[in-house]
Each structure stands twice: as structure tokens, then as C-alpha cells.
Amino acid sequence: MISDVEVRDAGSRGWGVFALRNFKRGEFIFRRRHGRVVSGAELSALSAEDQMHMCELDWDLYAVLLPPGCYLNHSCDPNAMRSGVRVFAWREIRPGEEVLIDYRLNATGAERWSCLCGSENCLGYVEAGGFFAMDEARQLDYLPYAPRFIRAEYQRLHS
Predict the structure, then answer these.
(1) pTM of the predicted model as reported, rounded to 2 decimal places
(2) Can you give the residue range of the structural domain that contains 88?
(3) Residues linked to residue 93 through DSSP beta bridges, in sequence order
(4) How many domains is the chain built from?
(5) pLDDT digits (tens, 9 = 90+) for 27-82
């Protein structure tokens, strides 16, 4: 339920999504909603705000995320996972804790930006082509939750 989370200031990460109650590992948190769906050629026509809140749906298809899902921040050691549009607890999340996902789950581009997550295994940056830049063990952990196009590419690369 979206009533179980709130969007508020997350310090250096901007806005973030915070749990209002305890979530057990595997428990559904909320459904991410997509706004406009665009091709790669249309990305530059979007506002700067919309470009900050994108999700890859395929190699050349992107969705603008709507609140609260557009405010999910990245962590190299996430406490939540998304599978399609569903966000669920990857581990227990306590009330007041920020709900964090790993952007590398479905990232495909070549961009790289500084990571502000501060986790023990933080690389200091997020690579947009991140799924295939992650170590093999992490890829295998994330693979069941990755979008179909990422799973297909993984299978192609490993067959």
C-alpha cells in the first residue's frame, strides 16, 4: 500500500521513500506507476525532471516513473527490490528507514555517476550499464527480478 510509505527529504540524495511501518523480507511494499512511455529518440524532448525519473523497459523503451516510485534512491546494498512494477522488501525494513533499490537491476546505458549510498560494498559510482558490470554472484542474485530484456541478454551471453 502506498499509505505504508512516505516521500520526504533524504539529505544529499534529494527526496526519498521512507517506510512508515515494518516490512518483512519478501513483503510487498507498493506498485511503481509509469507515466509516459518513450523511445530513446524521444528522451531529449523530456523535461530535466522527467529525465531524472526514468526506468528502462527494453533496449530502446523507457518509462517516466511517477511518485512515490520515482523517488526510490539507489544503494549498492539495497533493502528493497523491484520486479516489474512491484517493489518488495529484499530484507527487513524498519519504520523510518529509507526504502532503497539497486538501480543496476535494469540499467543498460553507458553513463556513470557518483554513488551516495555509503554502504560497505559501495563502489563510489553507479554505472548505468550496471547489470552486466556487476560481479557474477550479484547478477545471479538479481536475475530472477530483472526485466525480461535483461534476462534474455544474460541467457544469450551465457549460452
Answers:
(1) 0.90
(2) 2-157
(3) 23
(4) 1
(5) 999 999 999 999 989 999 999 999 889 888 888 899 999 999 999 999 989 999 99
